Amino acid sequence: MNVLTRSREMNAGRASIASPPRAERMRRMRWRDTRLWLGLGLMIIAMAWGASLMSNSESTVTVWRATRDLVPGALPIVEPVAVSLGAAAESYARADAPIEGRMTLPVSAGSLVPMAAIGAAPSTGTRRVTIPVDPLHAPIDLAAGDRVDVWATASDGGQTSIAPPSLVLPQVLVVSADRESVGVGGEIAVVIEVPQAEVSAAIAAIRSGAVDLAAVPITDSLGSDSSDAGLR
User: Fold this and answer.
1) pLDDT value of position 43
2) Is residue 149 within 8 Å of residue 173, measured between CB atoms?
């Protein structure tokens, strides 16, 4: 019996001595678990993404973006857009204030408007005249910032023309074209900007008979910048 008792005690002691290494091996195996490393990686990615979003939001500024092609001398038809420009933000027109001047350099639709492309506001040497125009006698896509030639066709008070059409005002700037507002005779109101000396010619064209507006191509409008320079 003493021999059996000693054998059991020795086996129990050996078992107690061998158990700690087994637990240590289990702990070591746990650090090799793929799910653990995957979780740590996702956490690091999420932290980096959040930091990036905070950094971008702090550097975002709201500037003006052209909604259509803008040519020199045209009104700036723009919309606000929030972008991240960093140190270059000072080179573009901020949307916290309206643009007062005219374009001096061309800017394509969808592009940000640089400060260098904006000139001084026009002087008091121009006047705005509203011309009633039949919708079929004006470009379908006529909008503010376009340039048009104003043609007049004299009539005897009816539909009969008494003279061929004549060019009254070349390459004038369209300030607004409201196709939603139609007059009694079905005309739309088109506001143009003309030199003060040409106001009488514009009014005479309105009263002489039918008025037609011919769109001036952008390539031709570029040459009108020099004539506008004398008005500033």
Assistant:
1) 81
2) no
130: which strand partners? 191
CA 221, distance to chain mean position in Å, is: 22
CA 215 to CA 71: how far, in whole Å?
A: 14
Please state, in angstroms and rounded to a whole number, the distance separating the CA atoms of residues 221 and 218.
5
Question: Do the Cβ atoms of 104 and 120 come closer than 8 Å?
Answer: no
Burial label for 172, CB within 10 Å (0-12, 13-18, 19+), is buried
Residues of the chain with pLDDT under 50: 17-18, 225-232
d(CA 212, CA 167): 9
Quote the tokens at residue 31: 């650090």
State pTM to two decimals. 0.54
* CA 216 vs CA 139, 147, 170, 171, 203: distances in Å: 10, 6, 9, 7, 21
What is each CA distance from 178 to 91, 98, 143, 165, in whole angstroms? Answer: 33, 21, 8, 25
Q: How far is 172 from 227, CA to CA, in rounded Å?
A: 11
Distances from the Cα of 123 to the Cα of 19, 56, 165, 201, 223, angstroms: 96, 41, 31, 20, 20
